[in-house]
Structures are given as structure tokens and as C-alpha cells.
Write a structure and sequence with these properties.
This protein is 34% helix and 18% strand. The chain is α/β, with parallel strands linked by helices. A 7-stranded mixed β-sheet has the order 4-6-1-8-11-2-12, with helices on both faces. A hairpin with a 1-residue loop joins β14 and β15. The longest helix has 31 residues.
């Protein structure tokens, strides 16, 4: 049977665009595994951009992720639906666009507009899977809270692995914790209750921490999450039911905190600063974000462009955190092997969005630019005899839901708005969709009255800024600004080509294609 699958895969690879053959393969795959459902291990990494060796970053030290990549498919052109954790996760884990699930910020919960919503893990639970979660999976502000993390999605109670005090959840230095607990007490006494309010009140959250002594990985929360996941895998492996286990890591989210050994593997002088630290020429000013997440509650940050030394230290911290998480992934893979379930467990790893590391003079996320929307996606299905290793085809995080359903041999719910990526696991040139679409709001007069939609194909990014109006379930907007970038000619997004008459033909072609895609796949239109 494996020989037959291998021949089918190779033939599919040769006959590019032979979708009938792809359908035959999918049917074959489903029939083979209908009686033995694969396990799903989903690894979600907060604020992870593609600073990974297998994704082309020569500076990154990520041996575990590189090894895992060699077993599966690396999606080099994968994009979140919205570059902020709450909206991105609500979209990815429901298979619905932000405009459908109606989560664009931290004031909306995903079941407010859709009380009968069935999430991706909930669908697996309803299909006979045991579903469990550790760490940050959904953003608690966009579901039913930190402790339950959408109770309907899980077969057993969610495990937060989150310290009760805000300070201890981030840092290990006793003096830092003392100062922050003191500040937190004063903040709460002043009526400040949310993490953001407390950080803004205290104005003393260090951006990094590297303790002088080497501490074990489980000194910090992400290491604790790994230990718990390893223990849980033993129980899940002994069960007769397949499992869907989601493990969510907090790093490399700010603050950049990791054991010293991960800092030590990098020489900061070898780490490059962002090559282009201005906004693109001709871009609308409102698209700029003044690193408000960084400036809004961490250690005092100077105005304007950060000093080179501060930039280098923060980049060093980011890479240290990525390598720390890389080690956690290695431990999870070892646990699959030790429990004898590695050959029947699909592994999918993704970051909830990208991150600006000084490019365009910005830090954090919250834009429609490449560095904010692009984030790693990696899928390994060990049952498949042949898998694509890399592909540049545009994919979206909401594509994960139909993909996992299909790989598990489950019917793909019609409600899912993404497209299955199974054909791309077979052939890197399969045409799944013309665009990955991201969005982010901006204000012009009224708060958040503009929505920018970014349409990313294999080479270009078109951003359309719409002044929105909501009518009868259809989001309609007046087109007020356009941005266009060509990554073959201008990978750093230095010029907005939409304002250049020499690129009017390309702009018209992209806009026509975007309008057609929006009419077929989305609930927006513009005039």
C-alpha cells in the first residue's frame, strides 16, 4: 500500500495542476486511515516570525525545528489573518475570517456574534477525539477566560501554567519581581485591572531578562508547559481514542526572557539590525505604528528610532527566546518517540503572527506589512510517503482547519472558510488560492474606521484601505488608499508602487484579481 501511495504522490508531483489526481489521492488517503485516526499535536508559538533556519534565516540556531522541517512541509509564504494574537487565534482556530467570527480586537469574544460556533478542536472532540490544551491557545480575552480557554473546545480542563501574579509570569529575578509586585499592588489599588493597564501604570517592565546563573528550562513557564505536555502524552498514548493536543508557548513574546544558555549561543555582534528603518516612500502615514505595545508598558523606551545598542540587545533576546522554544519542540518530539506514537501523530506548528524587529522603524506587530503578517507554518504527517519540503504558494492560517480535518479522514465542514493544503503537501506548485489575505484597522477621524486588507500572492502585496460601512452582513467600504509592493524587486518594502504611474498596469491587474477573490471568498466589497 505504501508503494502505491508513493507512486501516486510522485505522479501528482509530475502532473502539476492535475486536480483529478489529487482528488484520487485524497480519497485513497482517507480510506487507508479511516479505521485508525491520526493524533494531532498542534504547537502554537506567540509572536514567532520565520526566524528559523529551515525558513531561510542563517542567523537562527534552531536545530529541532530544522530537523522537524526535514520531515514535512515548510510553508514559506504563510500569513495570519490579523497581526494581533486575539484576532489571529480566533480566526485560525475556527477556520473563519475575522470579519466572519467578528473578532478584530480584545473587546470582542468569538462566541458573542456566533454562539453556536464550532471551533477546530471542538470539531475534533465532537468527532471522537480527546482534546486537551496547555498554555496559550485561544487568547483568553477573546473567549471565555484564561482558566477555561473556550471550555467547549476541550475534553478535559485547560491547563494555563500561568503564575498568579503578573510579575512572576514574566520574570525570575527576585528584585524585578519585588518591584513589579509592589507596582502591581499600587496599580490595582488605583483601579487598574488588566495586564495592559498595570504595565502602563508601573512603567517598569524590563524588555529582557538573562539571569547570571543558568537555570533549568522549567524555571520559566514555557519549560513548565513542556514538562506538563510530556507527562500528558503518556496518558494520551495509552488511551484507545486519538488525541488533539494543543501546546501554546508564550515566548518569543515580550519580554524577551530565556535561560542564559540560550543567550550564550549567540554573539550579539553577529546579529544584524533591520536594514531599512523608515516607512515606505509613498505609504499612508496612518499605517505607521509607533511600537505602542513596546512603549505602552515596558521599561522606559526613548522616543524615535531606538539606539543601535538597544536594538541589538532586543534582537539578541528575541533569538534567544526562539532557541529556547526550539528546545521545547525537541522535547515534545522526543516524547512522541518514547511513547511510540510518532508514526501516527500529525505535527503542525505555527506562530500566531509575525513581528517587526526594527524594520520600518517599528517594533511588535499591528500592521499589514510583511514582517507583521508572515509567520511560520510547518506540517508533518509521518504517514505520508512523500511530502513537499518547501512551497512559496500563498497560504493563510485559516487553511489549517480544513487541512487537519482532511488529513484525519473527517468530513470538512462547509463553514470553514479556508482551503485544504493537502494538495500542497504533494506538489509545491498546486494552485490552492491566488492570495493570502490579512487585515488590520487604522483610524482616520473616528476610531478604527479604516480597515486595510492585504492581498499577498507569490511576489506582490496589495493593501487596500477602506472606510467601512456595515450593511446586511456585507462589509462595504470606500477605497481611500492603496499600497503595492514587489518582493522580487524590493524585499524591504521601501517604495509604495501604487503611487507610481509606471506600475499602473500591475496595480490594475492586482486590484481586479483581489476584487474577484473578495467576491468569491470574503464578505467585503469596495468602490
Amino acid at each position: 500500500m505504501k508503494k502505491l501511495m508513493n507512486q501516486t504522490c510522485r505522479l501528482a508531483h509530475c502532473l502539476k495542476g492535475a486536480f483529478l489526481l489529487f482528488g484520487l489521492f485524497v480519497a485513497l488517503l482517507g480510506s487507508i486511515h479511516a479505521g485508525e485516526r491520526p493524533n494531532i499535536l498542534m504547537i502554537v508559538v506567540d509572536d514567532l516570525k520565520p526566524n528559523i533556519g529551515s525558513f531561510g534565516d542563517a542567523q537562527a540556531i534552531t536545530p529541532a525545528l530544522d530537523k522537524l522541517s526535514a520531515r514535512g512541509t515548510v510553508f514559506l509564504n504563510s500569513h495570519c489573518q490579523q497581526a494581533v494574537c486575539g484576532a489571529s487565534r480566533a480566526s485560525a482556530l475556527t477556520g473563519l475570517r475575522p470579519d466572519t467570527v467578528q473578532v478584530w480586537d480584545f473587546q470582542s469574544r468569538m462566541r458573542d456574534a456566533l454562539p453556536d460556533l464550532v471551533t477546530l478542536p471542538q470539531y475534533f472532540k465532537n468527532s471522537g477525539y480527546h482534546t486537551a490544551s496547555i498554555g496559550k491557545i485561544f487568547d483568553f480575552r477573546c473567549c471565555d477566560g484564561r482558566e477555561t480557554n473556550d471550555v467547549a473546545s476541550w475534553s478535559q480542563p485547560h491547563t494555563t501554567m500561568h503564575a498568579p501574579h503578573l510579575a512572576k509570569s514574566y520574570y525570575g529575578d527576585p528584585e524585578t519581581i519585588r518591584r513589579l509586585e509592589e507596582g502591581e499592588s499600587k496599580a490595582r489599588a488605583a483601579g487598574k485591572t488588566t495586564q495592559g493597564e498595570i504595565r502602563q501604570f508601573t512603567q517598569f517592565f524590563p524588555t529582557t531578562e538573562c539571569l547570571p546563573e543558568n537555570v533549568p528550562d522549567n524555571f520559566y513557564e514555557d519549560g513548565m508547559r513542556t514538562d506538563h505536555a510530556v507527562d500528558l502524552m503518556k496518558d494520551l498514548a495509552a488511551s484507545d481514542n486519538p488525541f488533539f493536543l494543543a501546546v501554546g508557548y508564550k515566548k518569543p513574546h515580550l519580554p524577551f526572557v530565556a535561560p542564559k544558555k540560550y543567550w550564550d549561543i549567540y554573539d550579539p555582534q553577529d546579529l544584524s539590525l533591520a536594514a531599512y528603518q523608515q516607512m515606505p516612500e509613498g505609504a499612508p502615514e496612518y499605517h505607521f505604528q509607533d511600537s505602542w505595545e513596546l512603549r505602552g508598558g515596558y521599561a522606559p523606551i526613548p522616543e524615535g528610532r531606538l539606539p543601535d545598542a538597544m536594538q541589538r540587545h532586543m534582537i539578541h533576546g528575541y533569538y534567544a527566546c526562539v532557541s529556547y522554544i526550539d528546545k521545547q519542540v525537541e522535547k515534545l518530539m522526543e516524547a512522541l518517540e518514547e511513547n511510540g506514537i510518532s508514526e501516527n501523530t500529525i505535527v503542525i506548528l505555527w506562530g500566531d503572527h509575525g513581528w517587526h524587529l526594527g524594520d520600518h522603524g517599528m517594533w511588535c506587530k499591528h500592521t499589514n506589512y510583511e514582517q507583521a503578517t508572515r509567520s511560520p507554518l510547518l506540517i508533518v504527517d509521518p504517514r505520508m510517503a512523500y511530502q513537499t519540503r518547501t512551497t512559496m504558494k500563498p497560504v493563510e492560517f485559516l487553511d489549517m482547519a480544513p487541512t487537519l480535518a482532511e488529513l484525519a479522514g473527517l468530513p470538512v465542514p462547509e463553514a470553514f472558510e479556508g482551503r485544504s493544503l493537502v494538495p500542497l503537501l504533494e506538489c509545491p506548485d498546486s494552485n490552492i488560492k491566488p492570495f493570502a489575505v490579512s487585515q488590520f484597522a487604522r483610524s482616520q477621524g473616528a476610531p478604527n474606521n479604516l480597515m486595510g486588507y492585504a492581498f499577498r500572492d507569490e511576489q506582490h502585496r496589495l493593501i487596500l484601505w477602506l472606510k467601512m460601512d456595515y450593511k446586511g452582513g456585507q462589509r462595504q467600504g470606500k477605497l481611500i488608499d492603496k499600497e503595492l509592493y514587489d518582493y522580487a524587486e524590493d524585499p524591504l518594502e521601501t517604495r509604495n508602487l501604487a503611487v507610481d504611474p509606471e506600475h499602473s498596469d500591475l496595480l490594475s491587474e492586482m486590484m481586479d484579481a483581489a476584487a474577484a477573490f473578495a467576491a468569491e471568498q470574503m464578505t467585503i466589497s469596495w468602490k
